[in-house]
Amino acid sequence: METNRRITRSGVLLRVLILSAFTVTITAQKPAPEVFTLTVPNGPILTRLNASVTLPCELSPIFNAEPLEVRWYRSENSNRPALLYKDHKIQEGPVDPRYKGRVSLTGGLDRGNVSLTLERVTLEDRGEYVCHVSNERWYEKAHVYLSMNVTGSAPVLSVASGGGGQVNVTCSSEGWSPQPKLTWRNKEEAEIKHEQVLFTSDSQGLLSVSSWLLYPPSDSDWLSCTISLSEEEKRESRVLPHKPGAWKEAFMVTLVVSLLLLCPLSTVVCILLKHRDQNKLEQSKSETKILFKGTENSQEKQPVKEGKNLQDWNQVKGFKENITLDEKTAHSAIRVTRDGKTAQYIKEQETMQSSVQRHPHVLANQSFGSEQHYWEVKVRDETVDKAVGDCGKLSWYVGVARDNAERRSAVPVTPGHGFWILSNEEGKGFHVNTDPPNSVHVREDLSMVGVFLDCDNQSLSFYNVDTESHIYTFWNVVTTHKFLPVFSPGQHPITILN
């Protein structure tokens, strides 16, 4: 009886194994679908410098991707992919040498997972990637954006003489991404409210941050400045806001009195010493005044690349171009005048449904790939009837777009996607479209913007024509393609000035 039971159990086990093998064979031999789509994350993938990161990309429906061709590449460099898989193996070329030995397909091709793993992430790795999968009958592609947290340098604190018996305390740091938060605190850890925070971007897209505040001098009550991306990613420095040179002044008084008691000659010596120290003090105050005056007017100098000097408005206006709008490139919600000089945003209900998926802007007829070019745009006109302005949207932007930039609204308007712009959005103020966006300090009554494209120095600068002052400069605007001026009107029409 026991033997029969063992035989029965063995038979059942054998049938289960045969059925499982048969099922696996049927699944493996299931033909690939005629068409397929790709599934990728909706938002950016966040990583850190020198870390390992995976950019997800999967087939839908799920099927074996081993016979397919898989190509991962940067949006601007499709001919030299980061990774190329075809003929059942990863190809040695043609690929981008920057990714050699750092990329692999780790998701499981047999399960329809074509995700890319990137090792030892660098700053250059930030940006948009394209997952492109194809067979003999069909292809599909999807976009994945890689973002990065970079912790900057420890804050540098300094104290200078201020007005009204107070001292001016400054805090600055560099090398951050994305935009960090800056917080002042006293020794009781209470936060000190402040409004003066400035951000500038360097050639690598990393941000420098600076702030300052007036505070009563003290030799015991320290101040702290904390710059952070999160609770885990932050830098802090402290300083005693003592009055600069206080001990020197006391020493000088004592010295003067002593010398006056010695002999008449000491009087001359003291006058000379006092005169020298006064000159130094005035020079220090003058330098401090210039520094903070420039910052308050948003005329701070951007980090400048070696051999590339930022030019002021009086220099760049000599490169003025005659720009006209290309009506064929206008969003259907934008109306362009016959002379090609003015663009106006009309009511949304008057637009065609086919335009909803495109960014609301219009490009210029002119394109530039070398030398220097400057144009001026009137973005605000108080004489325009407000009833007309109320029909428009509440924001505008101007700048340049790469000639191959994707204009669908699903693609962000950022430098990584071929756009460099200055924008004004009601309730949020003025920004440049770095990733993440940087706020810039501009007077609310700004009416005319100057745009200077320096193709030779790979930079784009914006100017306040009303005050003849500099607003912001993008560096590393690489001219691998030509650029076209781009205009997006808001409540008021946008007009290109002759």
Sheet with most strands: strand arrangement: 20-21-32-23-28-29-30
For the record, the CATH class of the largest domain is Mainly Beta
pLDDT < 50 stretches:
21-29, 246-258, 280-310, 349-356, 385-391
Rg measurement, Å: 31 Å
Can you offer a commentary on this structure?
This protein is α+β, with helices and mostly antiparallel strands and 498 residues long. It has 5 domains: 29 residues; 113 residues, Immunoglobulin-like (Sandwich), CATH 2.60.40; 84 residues, Sandwich (Immunoglobulin-like), CATH 2.60.40; 51 residues; 184 residues, SPRY domain (Jelly Rolls). 17% of the residues lie in helices and 33% in strands. It has 5 helices and 32 strands. It has a 7-stranded antiparallel β-sheet, with no helix packed on it. Helix 2 packs antiparallel against helix 3. It is globular. About 14% of the residues have low confidence.
Key structural traits:
six-stranded mixed β-sheet; 5 helices; globular; 498 residues; seven-stranded antiparallel β-sheet; Immunoglobulin-like; single chain; alpha+beta; 5 domains; 17% helix
Short description:
The chain has 498 residues and is an alpha+beta fold. It has helices at residues 2-28, 246-262, 264-296, 313-316, 386-389, and strands at 37-39, 45-48, 53-55, 58-60, 69-74, 83-86, 89-90, 103-105, 116-118, 127-134, 139-149, 156-161, 167-176, 181-186, 191-192, 197-201, 207-215, 223-228, 234-239, 334-336, 342-345, 362-363, 372-378, 395-402, 419-425, 429-432, 438-439, 448-454, 459-464, 469-475, 483-488, 494-496.
